[in-house]
Amino acid sequence: MTSGYCFEDLAVGQTASLAKTISEADIVLYSAISLDTNPVHVDAETAKHSIFGERVAHGMLSAGLISAVLGTRLPGPGTLYMRQSLRFAAPVKIGATVKATVTVAALNPEKKRATLSTICTVGDEVVIEGEAYVQVPSRG
């Protein structure tokens, strides 16, 4: 389901999220699309000797869920991504469910832009945190 808000409907503190379980197919498809074939993502034998001890999802695959929230839920359709900071705090294992949450942190009425705190979690563990800055559609 796709819904969203115009700038005039936003308020500091509003939040939205979505969750996705990262599958083997997600890893393979993301590797093909992004051309990121780092063995830590695609080769179990090599990944076994990495700091993670096993294959892990691409960080940007999980970060992409933030984009999904921004573009489909909050603010929603028509939102233009302008800037995003990311801090990768922990790996995401295949089979883990990643929850991406965005929260309106500040509004710029003059430019119809919003700053949102962004966070991805697996259970109670933060795996990515950062901040997004977006242009929001307006009714006026």
Average pLDDT figure: 96
* CATH architecture descriptor name: Roll
- SS elements, strand count: 5
Name of the top-level CATH class: Alpha Beta
Give, in spatial order, the strands making up the sheet with the most strands.
Answer: 1-3-4-5-2
Number of domains: 1
What fraction of residues sit in β-strands?
35-45%
By secondary-structure content and strand pairing, the structural class works out as alpha+beta
Please trace the helix and strand order, writing H or E for each element: EHHHHEEEE
Major sheet size, sense and barrel closure: 5 strands, antiparallel
Instruction: Indicate the overall shape.
Output: elongated
Uncertain stretches: none
Report the helical percentage: 10-25%
- State the end-to-end distance: 25 Å
What's the Cα radius of gyration? Answer: 16 Å
List the helices and strands and how they pair.
Layout: E1 15-21, H1 24-34, H2 39-42, H3 44-48, H4 59-72, E2 80-88, E3 97-108, E4 113-122, E5 125-135
Antiparallel strand pairs: 1-3, 2-5, 3-4, 4-5
Structure write-up:
This protein is an alpha+beta fold. It has one domain (7-135): Roll (Thiol Ester Dehydrase, Chain A). It is 24% helix and 35% strand. It contains four helices and five strands; from the N terminus they run E-H-H-H-H-E-E-E-E. Strands 1-3-4-5-2 form a five-stranded antiparallel sheet, with helices on one face. The longest helix has 14 residues, at 59-72. The radius of gyration is 16 Å and the shape is elongated. The two termini are 25 Å apart.
